[in-house]
Specification:
The protein has helices at 2-26, 46-51, 213-216, 226-230, and strands spanning 75-78, 83-88, 96-98, 108-112, 124-127, 147-150, 157-160, 163-166, 171-174, 183-186, 192-193, 206-209, 220-221, 232-235. It is of the alpha/beta class. The chain has a five-stranded mixed β-sheet, with no helix packed on it. The longest helix has 25 residues, at 2-26.
Length: 237
Amino acid sequence: MKMWKMLGCLVLLCAIICGCAALATEAKVEEPGTTNDGGNQGSNDPQDLVSGENENTPPVSGSVVVTPTYSEGLRFRSNGDGTCALAGVGTCTSSCILIPPTSPAGDTVTEILPYALKDSIVGAVEIPTTVKTLSAASFAGCERLCYVRVAAGSEWYSEYDGVLYSADGKTLIYCPSGRTAGELKLRASLVRIAAGAFAECKKLETVVFQGSTAAWHNVIVGDENDGLYAAGFRFSS
């Protein structure tokens, strides 16, 4: 009796295995983005979703464009000529601010006024390519600011080691007062440090000039830069 039961189980197991194999053979694996009738439903490739390409458009290297999310609630002052200036943080509560190139009213943001970020919690800020007028005073009173970034393509400004420079890298405009890194590297192309650039830097420990000793002696340092003189100084070359 036991032998017959075992044989029955083996026959049943074989039938199950054969059935599964038959189902697997009949199943069709569909191409991504197509239906059973061959109709194109659009690609599911993440690259295509970002760049807007599909299987009929060959992907182009470097075509991915990420749209930045600009900060909202910032306060602007219109100049009445289609341009405006960032005047304050307004209702924005973000600690990382991306200044938009255009205000909610449609004016092009070309300036950052003095004390625009005063007494805010801003720790990092990105300056759009449209801004062409600012100074160290634009960031005065922003004690938590530790990093300044300039949007790619700016004709007016650049950044190096989180510090704001003129576009050609010859003038250091502002070193964030909340900078926590003890060491700061200065560009070898530096020829001038603006007045007040280091006025509020109290945590700076070491300054490393990327150029030669002779080049440093030709650098013009403006007034109110006690934070620079209080730090240790050395040359990388």
